[in-house]
Amino acid sequence: MPATLPPSRLRRGMAALTALPLLALTACGYGSQAKDDTPAQKVAAGTEKVDGLDSVKIGYFGNLTHATALVGVQKGFFQKSLGATRAKYQIFNAGPSEIEALTSGSVDIGWIGPSPAINGYTKSDGKSLRIIGGSASGGVRLVVNPKKIASLKDLKGKKIATPQLGNTQDVAFLNWIADQGWKVDALSGKGDVSVVRTDNKITPDAYKSGSIDGAWVPEPTASKLVAEGGKVLFDESTLWPDNKFVITNIIVSQTFLKEHPKAVEAVLTASVETNKWINAHPDEAKAAANKQLEADSGKALPTNVLDPAWKSIQITDDPLASTLNTEAQHAVKAGLLKSPKLDGIYDLTLLNKVLKAAGENTVGDAGLGAD
Prior knowledge:
InterPro entries: ABC_SsuA_sub-bd, NrtA/CpmA_ABC-bd_dom. The protein has 371 residues and is of the alpha/beta class.
């Protein structure tokens, strides 16, 4: 931040950076407790506890980009793999709150986006978590008002929403803006394009009111905007090699990983089985994910939102480690993160063990694995 800024602006900027606990400004309270008394969550008679644990606490978001968790819960894959150990769930609205829950022990394992994982790891000096698996790629699109924006060059001077300052989509959009040669102050969002940080829940209303001209957002928000008359200008996957980039990872507390590796392996086994089932039964999986969204939030997605949103997401066991490193560098470029030390952020040992046992190809950590 330039030293020539007025003292009041400098103080505000430093306060904003201090408030960025995990590359995002808002850290909501811990998520709501998911129901665990559904038929799919019943503990099978005659099964044994894994690692002697009464329960394993699993966190995830109520987003389609967390489809592995949604389907795994709904179809009972996690509970089946954990035997007599109860699978308990918490649903989160923001990455920072899930990281806090993991750090405090309120959650053992979680599905989460790359930016919170990077920042949870760096903020703890590499002591809080490990990324132990992949879950999803893609599912992020730039949707605009076609009456105001007909091409990418028309974005200049317009108001475009992202979910949070410093979240995964915010970083991606700031990086894309810089690649166009345009200037935007990362903290305020002011510049050649106005970046308006808006909670995904209210972005569709902001679009309808005209207070924003478009949004760079994940699913299902992108498809909700399309249902309101928005136009997809492009899919973020087109910016990445092989059209793949990490949108959701699986993380675990390092303490839990060390003390209960069999429980971690059981959850990863369920994740791999869930992903295989999703890819083999896409329509059934889509319905199961939507059913779990309804159970968690009280509201299912309508077909005109669910169908296009589901198509834009790729389910994968591969954490796509090289793209996480690239995303971290984008945050550094935007001035939202100091050069992070990501060595050791991955431990894919148990995942690769599970993949081998399932006859699947193993995955790599891009040189960022734990010793």
